[in-house]
Design goal:
The protein is an alpha/beta fold and 192 residues long. It is built from three helices and nine strands; from the N terminus they run H-E-E-H-E-E-E-E-H-E-E-E.
Length: 192
């Protein structure tokens, strides 16, 4: 661990967090009930900027099914004054209805990131000022980054010249295996 990372680790331990270090990066995991309070404490510790917030679906994570909560929000913070970064992970307590508090009051930059996590993973952020879809269409059904979302989706849209508008219809694509095929010229990689 570098001296800067060690200093951050020690400061987080002193503040009551349980940081873990892997590959030179510090991560803390907080419970959903403590998420907003922890964010406020980290802001006071000098983490001025939220640089990313994303949803994660841990269903079948790695080489085996995950035991424990399925959905999480992962936040990447930056302390410009201390020149350190921190990752914060918080699991949603309920897989059927994933809910976490919004961080918009602590870091306004969380606004669109939380909308994206809501749209793509279905994570509800309580207290968000404008939680609505941001990347998918208004009538879109489901959350496309969930691991149980069908690969071809449910509906497709096309322009209907007779109705002179875009119409939705059930997906007509037949599932197929996509295997990359490499086509090379004869004597490829042979010296002349």
């Amino acid at each position: 661990m570098t001296p800067r990372v060690q200093k951050l680790h020690d400061a987080l331990v002193q503040a009551g967090f349980r940081p873990t270090e892997r590959l030179g990066e510090i991560t803390i995991e907080v419970a959903a009930a403590d998420y907003l309070g922890a964010a406020g404490k980290l802001r006071e510790m000098g983490f001025e900027q939220l640089i990313d917030l994303c949803g994660v679906d841990y269903a079948a994570y790695g080489d085996r099914p995950r035991e424990g909560p399925r959905f999480a929000a992962v936040v990447h913070l930056l302390s410009i004054s201390n020149n350190v970064r921190l990752r914060v992970r918080c699991f949603c307590p309920d897989d059927e209805f994933p809910v976490l508090p919004s961080l918009v009051e602590v870091w306004p930059s969380a606004n669109w990131f939380e909308r994206e996590a809501f749209d793509l993973f279905g994570i509800i952020f309580e207290g968000h000022p404008d939680l609505r879809r941001i990347l998918t269409d208004y009538g879109f059904v489901g959350h496309p980054f969930r691991k149980d979302f069908p690969l071809s989706g449910h509906v497709e849209m096309r322009y209907d010249p007779e109705q002179k508008r875009v119409v939705y219809q059930p997906v007509t694509i037949d599932p197929r295996e996509v295997t990359p095929r490499i086509v090379r010229e004869p004597n490829y990689a042979h010296e002349k």
